[in-house]
Amino acid sequence: MLVRIVRMAFQEGKTDDFRAIFDASKQRIRAFPGCLHLELLRDLDQPTVYVTYSHWESPEALEQYRRSDLFRATWAATKVLFADRPTAFSMETIETAGH
């Protein structure tokens, strides 16, 4: 399994636009083959900074999504709202600690 984390800083006044884009696409992203989980997080100290946290079956599944029309359209609408370059990480889970 691959964990994908994308940190995005938005221009002041553009977070509502981003939330509308996310709301319109989140169910289709979650239903995309290979997507196992999708969350949207917001930084408590920087309210214009959001992070998507997703789980993918494999690097290939993520790459299929990144080549899709869904990703291209969503990313094109989102990237014009950025205040800074986004940062993305692909990771694998090594260990999960229980409660």
UniProtKB/TrEMBL annotation:
Organism: Larkinella arboricola
Record-given protein name: Quinol monooxygenase YgiN
Keyword Oxidoreductase applies: yes
Annotated ABM domain residues: 2-91
Swiss-Prot/TrEMBL keywords: Monooxygenase, Oxidoreductase
Gene Ontology molecular function, alphabetical: monooxygenase activity
Family annotation (InterPro entries): ABM_dom (IPR007138), Dimeric_a/b-barrel (IPR011008)
Top-level lineage group: Bacteria
